[in-house]
What we know:
This protein has helices at about 1-15, 90, 95-100, 160-170, 195-200, 210-220, 245-270; strands at about 20-25, 40-45, 60-70, 70-75, 105-115, 125-130, 175-185, 205-210, 225-235. The chain is an alpha/beta fold. The protein has a five-stranded mixed barrel with strand order 5-8-7-6-9, surrounded by four helices. About 45% of the residues are buried.
Amino acid sequence: MYTKIQETASWLNERHSSRPEVAIILGTGLGSIADEIEPEVEISYKDIPHFPVSTVEGHEGKLIFGKYAGKDILAMKGRFHYYEGYSMQEVTFPVRVMHELGIKTLFVSNAAGGSNPTFHVGDLMIITDHINAFPENPLRGKNIPTGPRFPEMNGAYDAQLIQLADSIVKEQNISGVVHGVYYGTQGPSYETPAEYRAFHILGADAVGMSTVPEVIVARHSGIKVFGVSVITNMGLSDHPVSVSHEEVQQAGEQAGKRLKMIIKAMLCKL
Length: 270
């Protein structure tokens, strides 16, 4: 696996001249951020050696090297999920490659269902911690020498980046921004009302099907993480409302405008 990671990184380095230290994973409904990137090169996942290919609607599936807010960045337009049938090592393969490419900071976004009754559809939840309910850990198996066998998960979401985001939200008076704990499940079925209630009792404010594996591998590799969930539906209520993938995408796209403001300002101040 480590040989494949190095081969992919070497292949990519031959096709771009920038040396980004920041990467952004654009989740469901948030791909419009890519429209503001000044691209140096865009590469389809299917053309990258050893890379998986995204199969989810709304995940375009390409890697973008370019400039955003004056910074060299690497952006993933579309991610991989455990429920697609990939192993955890395949799901997190791009993050491993990011480390080899010199990435120091990772911005990760996702769509999530709200399990905190004070939240609203369209809120941006800055992730302060997560609960890992996936059936497999991406570090299972032979340890890859980018980090220790037993990496520390305290502070998985960087406190300084969270403080920076909070200051920007206050300065720019951006509404609908909250803090919370993300509960990661394997999916692909949406949660039942009873599950939302159970997850909330366990301490979860939002529930989704991604992000946790990527964050674990990023921390194992020494990459700082800033995570945001777009609350696309509310599952914890007296009368839960059914939700479709299309509605999740629409809610994500609407909230994406405010998320772009935050990420752009953060990049300017890094």
